[in-house]
Amino acid sequence: MTAPEPARCIVLISGGGTNLQALIDAERDGLPVRIAAVISNEPQAYGLVRARAAGIATRVLSHRGCASRDDYDRALARLIDEFRPTILLLAGFMRILTPRFVAHYRGRLLNIHPSLLPDLRGLHTHRRALESGARVHGASVHFVTDELDGGPVIVQARVPVLPGDQPETLAARVLQREHLIYPLAVRWLAEGRLTLGDDGLPRLDGQILDRPRLLEDEEAPTEGR
Ligand code: GRF
Q1: The domain 7-218 belongs to what CATH superfamily?
Q2: Three-state SS for 137?
Q3: Is the pLDDT score of 210 beyond 80?
Q4: With a threshold of 0.85, does the pTM exceed it?
Q5: H helices within the chain, ranges in order?
Q6: Domain segments of the chain as ranges
Q7: Mutate to test the pocket of ligand 1, among 112, 125, 186 (most ligand atoms within 8 A of CB)
Q8: Cα 54 to the chain's mean position, in Å?
Q9: If I label 39, which of 12, 60, 85, 204 is the partner at 20 to 30 A Cα–Cα?
């Protein structure tokens, strides 16, 4: 039996691209995707270097000088669609997207966010987690909808807050878990196991995800497969 074609995937970045690197590594290790291009709004994003090193096409579309958010997102969608992707991944892409853009990629657009959503939407999540006195922090992969960091959450990883943690130390531990949950969710989407229904609810293997899956629960059963 021939293996199904890998899902064509575009990754949008603005920065260092460690999540992009995790996806590149996962593709090399058998994740059924083909990263067709990496697009950044920031010309200096180190993630572009990572992409080129992996032989992936890169494009820069700067938002500076773009008349409106709508203009930028239209140009971005045109650029993306030249690559005919089936999956679009935000990996540290530091822009708010217009409803029109989000609707165009509905059900095939994921984001990773460094908190246990719905807690701590927005920026500076690690500092805010420490300030709140939380004992547990983490990261979430979610479908992107019009609501900023508000789309249905697919999978999360929980990370304990340790005595003496600083935003940087906590961020580093969360990032390690991000690198596990993003490829996991992408695999589900690429394999057609993960969908976003017309009712706005995410489904995994046909079952409504009434709460996000937890990395801790996923790790045990996959061991030794
Ligand atoms: C990550 O913390 C991700 O959750 C957030 O932006 C950061 C990107 O990091 N959306 P990197 O560029 O993947 O290293």
Answers
A1: Formyl transferase, N-terminal domain (3.40.50.170)
A2: strand
A3: yes
A4: yes
A5: 18-28, 46-53, 69-81, 99-104, 125-132, 167-190, 215-222
A6: 7-218
A7: 112
A8: 19
A9: 204
